[in-house]
Amino acid sequence: MMRVRLHFTGRVQGVGFRYFAQMNASQFNVTGWVKNMYDGSVTAEAQGTKKQIESFIEAMKHGHRFMRIDHMTAEECPVLQGEKDFKVKY
């Protein structure tokens, strides 16, 4: 089990990015959260097996036609025990 903090910049707000992340998290059985930041970027934490996380990140990179990721960073962070779902934070 691993957890990563992801940070996305580009056209990532106002285009359904958080719900796209939630849909992909559900598809790959990833838990965590996603949140719009005040600077126009989006931050997320995703937790699962290495394969699940890799699949989630790859799906996010491909995105959909309304969003555009200019830059993405990923760093490992501590696993949260007992987390059961992936939430959109406000």
UniProtKB/TrEMBL annotation:
Source lineage: Bacteria, Bacillati, Bacillota, Clostridia, Lachnospirales
InterPro entries hit by this protein: Acylphosphatase, Acylphosphatase-like_dom, Acylphosphatase-like_dom_sf, Acylphosphatase_CS
Protein's name according to its UniProt entry: acylphosphatase
Domain of life of the organism encoding this protein: Bacteria
The EC number(s) this enzyme carries: 3.6.1.7
Keywords attached to this entry: Hydrolase
Family statement: Belongs to the acylphosphatase family.
Catalytic activity, as annotated: an acyl phosphate + H2O = a carboxylate + phosphate + H(+)
GO molecular function terms noted in the UniProt entry: acylphosphatase activity
